[in-house]
Amino acid sequence: MNKVGTSYLLWLGCLFGISGLHRLYNGKIATGLFWMMTWGLFGVGQFIDLFLVPDMVEEHNLKYRARLGMSPTGVPLSQPAVAATVLKPSREQLMIRLLEAAAARGGKLSVTQGVMATGLGFAEVETVLQEMVRTGYVGIDNDPVTGVITYDFKEL
């Protein structure tokens, strides 16, 4: 990041016969070399630059920040992306989650309640519940009011 004070100090190089240092410092290479060869455009350009130095510094700093991917205020424009890897729970972990959900609901659980408790899809939850029915841990009932299929965890 260039500073206005440093640019003005380099502008004073014209008093020692070296004009255009402030332009070179602010990234204006072609005009900086031209200023050096013509003694600051015969002093006229050097005098005008006395008033243009702050804008030159600001322009250089904006280009510098843009190259670094920062806004004019210095805040990064893009945030680094972090890829989160979500591990799928094992069958055993899924069965334990369903068991805990059923325990919280009096030993009965519907597929929808299982989906809400695990965050997995309907098909996967229903497959695991059917597997638990086949092994004898769970029985199938219907809710007397709604008719929804509920899985009855007998041992709870």
Question: What is the strand and helix layout of this fold?
Answer:
Blueprint: H1 4-11, H2 21-25, H3 29-37, H4 39-42, H5 44-67, H6 91-104, E1 108-110, H7 111-118, H8 122-135, E2 138-142, E3 149-153
Antiparallel strand pairs: 1-3, 2-3
Helix pairs in contact: 1-5, 6-7, 6-8, 7-8
Query: Roughly how many Å is the radius of gyration?
Result: 37 Å
β-strand amount: 5-15%
Total count of domains: 2
Class from helix and strand fractions:
mainly alpha
Outline the low-pLDDT stretches. Answer: none
Please give the alpha-carbon distance between the first and last residues: 69 Å
Q: What percent of the residues sit in helical stretches (DSSP H or I)? A: 55-70%
Mean of residue pLDDT?
A: 91
- Give the strand order, joined by hyphens, for the main sheet: 1-3-2
Task: Quickly count the helices.
Answer: 8
Q: What's the story with the biggest beta sheet? A: 3 strands, antiparallel
Number of strands: 3
Q: H/E order of the elements?
A: HHHHHHEHHEE
Overall geometry? rod-shaped
Describe the overall structure.
The protein is mainly alpha-helical and 156 residues long. The protein folds into two domains: 4-67, no CATH class; 91-153, Arc Repressor Mutant, subunit A. It has eight helices and three strands; from the N terminus they run H-H-H-H-H-H-E-H-H-E-E. A three-stranded antiparallel sheet has the order 1-3-2. Helix 1 packs antiparallel against helix 5 (44-67) and helix 7 (111-118) packs across helix 8 (122-135). The protein is rod-shaped, with a radius of gyration of 37 Å. The relative contact order is 0.09. The model has no long low-confidence stretch (mean pLDDT 91).
